[in-house]
Amino acid sequence: MVNLLLRHGIVAGMLVACCMAAGCGRIPKPGDGGGSNPAAHLKSKSVNEDTSDKPMLTPQSEPFGQTAAGEEVVQYSLSNPSGMKISVINLGAIITSVEVPDRKGKVANVTLSFPSFAMYLENAPYFGGACGRYANRIAAGKFSIDGNEYSLFLNNGPNSLHGGQEGFMKKLWKAEPFQNDQASGVKFSYTSPDGEEGYPGELKTVVTYTLTHDNELRMDYHATTDKPTVLNLTNHAYWNLAGAGNGFILDHELTLLCSKFLPVDEGGIPTGELASVEGTCMDFRKPEKIGARIDQPVNGAGGYDHCYVVDGAAGKLRPVAKVVEPKSGRVMEISTTEPGIQFYTGNFLAGTPKTADIPKHGALCLETQHFPDSPNRREFPTTRLNPGETYTQTTVHKFSVAK
Ligand code: BGC
């Protein structure tokens, strides 16, 4: 209980005003013949059909809502010829749906979404968006750079979580959709002013989501600063491969190519130790049902809520996770350049309207990132960014079906 309170002690309408804002509608491509309905082909796609010679579909856009300040929120949809469709919005660079076929070709959305636009403005559980400037926790919301101390908003008991009061998920991002033969995507940009939420430096951030011909959702992050600062960017999608809202993730089989994890205190702050997973409930190096040992993790807030150390060299794109949902046969494989991955089993999804009535353990997160509280831990890979340097991170989610 203390654990729950500490982690979520302080965590915390808009009418959907559908607009026909400039830029809404079909995104034109030179030499492209006409509009197509990306949803039309999705329902009937056979998983065995050879689609390798078919072109990517043109990104579509539609009005999604309006912020309190009157800014238009637009949803962009990307579809490929093999039956995948992804939707994203310029509010928080949030992924609002990821539709993938199961082994019979039946398509379902496998990421949690809200039924109303107003709920995206609150987004208490951080559905689907870009976490920043610092994903995960910073102890006591404090850190120092070159002798200067910085203080952040405390939104998670005594700590700062996912960027603080608003973080990047409440910001309106500039959106630029694109398309080529093998992929289509949306490039989102946001400039965080110097001092925003207590973080130093003006941070220019770019997050690009790309859907490839091969059923990959690629996320590329870039950032630059004009003063030394710290950052840790990730995406906070919640997954249920049986279909969002369709029961629990306890039967999903997980493989994590991670030999070590970071033990945490009751507030979710790493103790500093990189502990071996060998012989513990944290070991997912071979596929295991998530529910098999879910009552065992120490300080896991009622499940798993821990950062793992990804095997192999950080900075290189390498495989880290595989999730298989046995009934539907849907498979999601994750590769990343990041040193860590936060495995979170939706322990605070308590089934309230705020969480779209999704129950505890109704979805899981696998957030590729740097280690929590790195700015206060010299021994962890650095999260410092200096002027003249470019921060990059790439994470790829590949979807397929098990035979
Ligand atoms: C954290 C959880 C938190 C969730 C939603 C995850 O990244 O690890 O502790 O409850 O985000 O805020």
Describe this protein's structure.
By secondary structure, the protein is mainly beta. The protein has a single domain, classed as Beta-galactosidase, Chain A, domain 5 (Distorted Sandwich), CATH 2.70.98. 3% of the residues lie in helices and 34% in strands. It has 2 helices and 28 strands. Strands 12-13-14-15-28-24-23-18-21 form a 9-stranded antiparallel sheet, with no helix packed on it. A hairpin with a 3-residue loop joins strand 14 and strand 15. It is globular. The N terminus is likely disordered. The structure holds beta-D-glucopyranose (BGC). The site of beta-D-glucopyranose has 11 residues, from strand 25 and strand 26.
**Tally of discrete structural domains:** 1
| CATH topology-level fold name | Beta-galactosidase, Chain A, domain 5
The number of helical runs is 2
Shape: globular
Mean of pLDDT: 89
- Alpha carbon gap, first and last residue: 42 Å
Range of helix content: under 10%
The low-confidence runs, each spanning 5 or more residues with pLDDT under 50, are 1-6, 8-47
Order of H and E elements: HEEEEEEHEEEEEEEEEEEEEEEEEEEEEE
Largest sheet: 9 strands, antiparallel
